[in-house]
Amino acid sequence: MNLRFDPSNIIVSGVGGQGNILASDLISRALCASGCFVSVGETYGATQRGGSVVSHIRVSTRRIYGPLIPSGLCHMIIGFEPLEVYRILKDCGHDDVWVVMNDRPFYPIDVLKKKSTYPEMDSLLKGIGELSSRVKVIKATDIAFEAGNPQAQNVVMVGAFAGLNWIPLDKSLYFEAIRETFSGERLMVNQRAFEMGFAAAGDDTGVSG
Amino acid sequence: MGRLYYNVNEPGKACILSGNEAVARGALEAGVGVVSSYPGSPSVQIMECLAAVSRERNLYAEWSINEKVALEVAAAGSFSGLRSLCIMKADGLNVAMDFLTTLPLSGIGAGLVLVVSDDPGVHSSVKEEDTRYLAPAAHVPVIEPSNPQEALRMTRWAFEVSEETGLPLMVRLVTRICHARATVVPGKVTQRDAKPLIADDARFITAARFHPVSHRRLDKAKEIFEESAFNHYEGPDEASLAVIASGVSYQYSLEALELLDLERDVGIFQVGTIWPLPEKKVLSVLRRFRTVLFLEEIETFLEDQVRVLASGHMQELSGLRLCGKRSGDVPWVMKSRGMGEMDPDIAIEAIAGFAGRETPGRIASGRFKVSENQEQQLPVRLPSLCAGCPHRASYWAIKKALTLDGRGGFALGDIGCYALGVLPTGYETIRTVHSMGSGVGVAGGLGNLRAMGLRQPVVAVIGDSTFFHAGIPPLINAKTNGSQYLCVILDNETTAMTGHQPHPGSGVTAVGEPAASVPIHEVLKGLDIPFTVADPYMIGETVESILALLRKDGLNVLILRRQCALKAGRRSGGARVYVDEEKCLGDLCGCDRYCSRIFSCPANVWDEEKAKARIDEVICVGCGVCAEICPGGAIIVEKEG
Asked: Could you report the predicted ipTM of this complex, rounded to two decimals?
């Protein structure tokens, strides 16, 4: 496999309940099926209840790496929530980072309580652009609604990541991982969500950098 | 449920397994017959994995009432000749410790492995406890894997070592192993042929005269550990610096050496068998290097063990520098990013410092491009109770009742989702958090101080699973000692925090089969403790109930029963909830965003453009509790079909 970096390091970021683990699970199994060495570190726990959740995915053709990405060596971010993408970039943004993200806010309780304000979306996107070199915005929640379940935005985002082909991987490997994970109606919804995300990656709106 | 890769018997075929799944796989490869546990993060999935295949693999799996009972159940399996596995988090080991310390004296039967998960960086715990320190106290050997692949191999091997030594064996896991997933190449699942039997001459007696026997067993363990390939050295024959690392810190060290291009210049020794320390192997490293750097998680157990060893060889090791957290050369509690948690950055910085190398730029700065609004303060994202969580309604009611009561009453809690009662999401209602059931016990103590002049009402909250684990003895203690307080049982009908495991009140086994249940109210009836049952979603009535109970004498219990919103699933409230934009006066209403600012369910958002309240339909589960607290009556609950 031709990786832009070896190891290539991907961060999946979101809020507890948005389905980070499922997304990183699908991606890591697709990568493993391609014959790469994969490791994933999940940061969840008490934070799964509405806190920030981060998955580190590391893929290499050489060996299995540890579960955490050294700061500064992240190459791709799959973001489910714009504030969380910016939070990560503040610590590890640089010229080699590419971002694909859902721009629908999930308000922290601090914001609901008026203790702080959620940044303006324009300034947030500007900041994200400045701390990375490629940004693709996907209306993943809207797409997931259309696919049949707004919760499936995580699978829409996996589809978009696959569609961008930043890690060259056959689409069928993602489908296989989805088929292994779901059945019945949920399989239909998630296959649809993946396809629609994949297609959304191809359109030219929302790309910068 | 997806494909269960840990159960697929295709030896040699690489797959992705979590550390937890890898341990389950290791146990299956060892032919495990009995598995028991009490749910605790981060190792909760091991039991779930094994329970899911228990019929197919003919093994007995149970969620036990607490960790001590779990270990007794596993020991029973071992006594009867079946390889047995017990799983718990570090906090649970304290509960099981009384029984564990007897096993090296009594001896065991078939292999008995105890998996204990520590939580460096406290991702899902109340404290960072380092299990390794309890191993010497219990006379139980402990080993520690550095990734899922080793977790599989070490678990399988642990059963063999347990049988060879006659000791239970501890496998120490950490969050970054349990919750990591990685490429793993599994071995062969063993078909077990042993049948349970307590032989005529079998005796498992604990007596002080067996103390020397337990030491002989430990000596045997040490011999085995000296020969183990899980302790291994890589690097130059001689150099100025060597790293001694254990657990996931070993993986971070390997990467640090690679990034710093030091693989040929710095030695690295992985200690896989932590205690008893493989002294000969460690000494062979100490003799060859001038400086040794220790990288390990939480406390300084390994560093301390090696310091003790080195102190017995001072002459030949003169000039040797031992550096780690103890010596202040590696940051730890209060100084490092993750408290006792190691990470690749700490490893890189520490090794670079000792090797006299520059830390690679991107890692050193930790910030690589500056954006104009870089310094903008970002809102923190504190954990929050889920939308529709019954605990939110319960805390709202408790807080309101205590305020209305006006005598300075307070609430005490413990561990579980409801520990979020200390945070704004639970209105900072909870004033003490310690260990399982501790709120009930401490409340009992305070409730006995009335005679000495304590006038404030005392409330304890406890979850349903915790009630069975550690809540019953303190309630009986309170009753028989005449304590006065209100115990609120937050009964969401499951063990919610760890992912909905059954408990003794659930009427279902770990395997999912129907079982006898012990309803909480029946326990209270049997104990002759007066109790009331209420639905926390009915906020007004719940406040009234609590107020009345605060003014009642003696020990009282209120069961607030409502299924966990995550378990009940979306639309658990069975209603569509929305804001009537005509009725909501928005920022013009005197309430100052009462729904989002005060009640603060994540679904109660504020529409800045319209300057009015809004319900986020993606998040809302339709419980309708916020409709009751809106002073303008602007939140509409529309019952669905």
From this structure: 0.95
